[in-house]
Amino acid sequence: MWWFHGMHANLLTAFRRRQPALPGNVLDAGCGTGGLLAKLARALPGWSPIGLDADAGACRLARAKSGRPVSCGSANQLPFADGSLAAIFSADVLCHRNVDEAEKAVVESKSFTDSEALEKHLIDFVAGDEGELLRQLQGYKVQLFSGQSVTLAPQGQAVTSYQMTSREKFLATISQPNLALILGIFGLILLYVEFTHPGLVAPGVIGGICFLLAILGFSFLPINYVGVLLMLLAIGLFVAEVKVQGFGILGMGGVVSMVIGMLILVDSPDPAVQIGFATAISAALPFAVIFIILLIAVIKSYRQRVSTGNAGMIGLIGVADSEISAAGRVRVRGEYWQAHSSAPIAAGRHVRIIEIDNLNVKVEEVRE
To answer: Cα angle at 180 between 178 and 186, to 5 degrees?
Structure first.
């Protein structure tokens, strides 16, 4: 494995001179907002540039700018086995600096205060604002890799601010894990509405767009596939609950599976790029409410009296249309039924059905 450090302009030249024979993974350690990472992605076809930075905000910007995977945190926590990196780039990290301390910043993701960085010669000076920075740079001498010495004179020069493009802002926004998760769930719900109510069109279109945007957002994040499997399991349990009536057990299991899956979905030690517990609960809560309502409805349905079929006839009150003993006729719910009774019942008396045999019912007199 080769370690290249220096300025952007010289790194690619140095890499091409000592380029390994076969393409592999190249790590941009301390990638910042992804300037070099984007150049590596364009200049090294066939290679797999990967970014690493300790700052979560910089990681989001780097993903949006380069379209490459970026991990936040320590290099020791990268999901790569020993020997899987062909090269490590550390642009503007180790050039003319305290190599030991700078290496800790890269390998251990160690952070320094401004005074510590100045004391350890990781930086040249500390500036409180842009104006102070330009004043300190006035007359500052730097030595280029060519050996030429240059004296800076920035005061009086025009200052141009480079903002993110609309595309970069959009990608940085949807790559926020909480938003990507909400888009995905909202999209799935709308797609379900479209599939169960064909012809509405709008839910299908909006749901498809939201779901694809969620996939795009998650493509910039390090994904834990166990989290994906748990969320797929949750969807399966939800469907099973609706199909087989699991008395809420399958539904509640789906809710638990979904919450755990959401919490571990983004595989990063940085809390800033993980899905928050509140978001996971909020996303799973509607499903929990739906299945609690279904469970209550199922329990109520089992408590209700059967109202159809032969069993639904038992206990109904009717009127004897004729005298009833071994045979007779009754009127129940506007229907006439052949009837018999173990005791004589006069015509016009109210009767209760106590048994049914095909089209003949056994009744008893209802006494006041």
So the answer is: 100
